[in-house]
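Re: [help] complex structure
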Amino acid sequence: MAVNLQTLSKRENLLAGGHRACAGCTGANILKQVMLTAGPDTVVGNATGCMEVVTTIFPYTAWKVPFIHTAFENAAATISGAETAFRALKKRGELPVAREKIHFIAFGGDGGTYDIGLQSLSGAMERGHNMLYVCYDNEAYMNTGIQRSGATPLGAHTSTTPVGSVHKGKEQHRKDLTSIMVAHNIPYVAQTTPFHWRDLQQKVEKALSVDGPAFLNILMPCTVGWGFDPAIGMELAKVAVETNFWPLFEVENGRYRLTYKPKEPRTPIAEWLKPQRRFQHVFRPGNEHILEELQQKVDDDFARLLRLCEATAD
Amino acid sequence: MEQRYVGLTGNEAVATAFKQARPHVASAFPITPQTEMMHKYAEFVANGEVDTEMILVESEHSAMSAAVGAAAAGARTMTATSSAGFALMWEVVYIAASLRLPIGMAMVNRALSGNINIHCDHSDAMGGRDSGWIQFYCENAQEAYDHGLMCWRIGEHPDVRLPVMVNYDGFIISHTAESLHILDDDDAWRFVGPKRQDVGYTLLDVENPVTVGPLDLTDYYFEHKVAEMAAHERAPRVIDAVYREYGELTGRVYAPVERYRLDDAELVIVVLGSTAGTAKEVVDAYREQGVKVGLLKIRLFRPFPAEAVAAALAGRKAVGVMDRSASFGGLGGPVFTEVRSALYRRPDAPPVHDWIYGLGGRDCDTTQIASLIDQLRDVAAGKELDTVNLLGVRL
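Output below.
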């Protein structure tokens, strides 16, 4: 189904306004966009993290669909239980309201997905539940005060990898979670951003239409954690794609496909790093090697992605 | 009502009871000695004896998380674990009770690591005594079976809505074949009945969406905990009613505490779990010698039946509590502290002493319990004794 702004504008916004996300938060926008396509017959789970905290302070909730939060590391397992209950009750004709299909979506930040929730996620994907897991990846533990995570890029300043006279931010590259999810051989895995709304809508639609589990990794520029003007969050999502730092691609039944080809020649990674306070030190004399290493990693990863697209094409 | 007299291990007995309750969802991860319970259950499912959807997870943390998700979606949900498995679940164990989800759990008691030990003690379940779950401790396969049926009626009752843990001792009960009476599937189903979908909430009612497990801060959290406490205050009435109905149905009449040769007893042993069976033998032997000793078995540990315990123990000459778990650095084990606290400020409160025993599956034989009774006789005669003592350990 073609997605355009006209049809989107007619859909119900299932994430009510008035939640407590920061000004300029792109995460709340991700939730809203995913739910526009998922629709009201959806059960949502959320790992502990920013999005859970800002949408559900008792006695208020921003969620117009059934929602459950239990803990940090178990959003996938929790939603897998709800999805199983749906099948079990449906089989016995005991559903509280008759539905042929209900979507089950678990949201988690990078902390709850790349790190503490990885085992729970891996188990749920392997078991083949009809569920979509959406990681909103803002590249650190923002909810607890911007500590480094497995998704934090090399060189980034965080509360636990501060830039000092000896150490210059995080000293390891980020984990490639999307590839880990591809290795689960689930029907659908994709990366997108909230700026590329059409791409995001199409991917959510595909993810919810497959038989079995699906995984979306969505880059979420964080104004507080990355240190940028709240007005430019979406712009940073766009530049992340143009620099090849966050390529838009999908893996459907093992087939890789770029869903957007960045303009040639590719934008240097420095363009993405410059507006972010967490990377300011990489532009200072003596730290050039960090910038070079970041650029090299982006180039290598993108080349590998292109090879995978070619190798798995029809 | 006609019942079948069968030979089953404790694990098989509880698997049978759970099957007869027809849970929608079972979520579990293997750990000794719980494993055979889930093997048996998986066989029932494989043979079509029950249509439960199995979630065979990658850890106990996920077992309890998936159970919470399933129960929040309105499913009658079962799980089973032991020892370290329960410890790994622990965070979500509290959440299950806080979200008021009547999950049924077979808890096959085993020592906690370290060092690693697969045999029975109660350190696992006692770690969850404050988690908000109802806890039963069973003496044998019969009790485990019966509570495996009754737990659904209790936990799912509108006045309770709490998860229930049916404890039975690892290997001693779980792996020992015993003779017991079981109900036919149809009779059991008539007793348990389907899970009411109009009690509590369900995530699957997409027309009436509910937010479960929100951030709950200084202004409301406390009241929600008080509501959970109130559910525990209401539970005993429901438990009594279910015990009564089950007793009329089966002839097996239960109570939160069991009084054994207690009426004229001067010395009393307080114990829970399988050790009660051994202790009853010793009580009988001493009774034959004219020693007025009796036994109080605590079957329901949460909510703690403080009134019944105090009433049973007040006015005795000496009471010995047996704790199959240690509370390191504490004044006695968890059973002892509850029992003595229940007697506090009663003018006729007897001297109460604690015996830590059976850790890591150390066999508790009749000679150990006899020595406990001998020491109680000394206490009754005015002899001083340490508050906390050890049984069956090399020193």
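The first strand of chain A starts at residue 42 and ends at 46.
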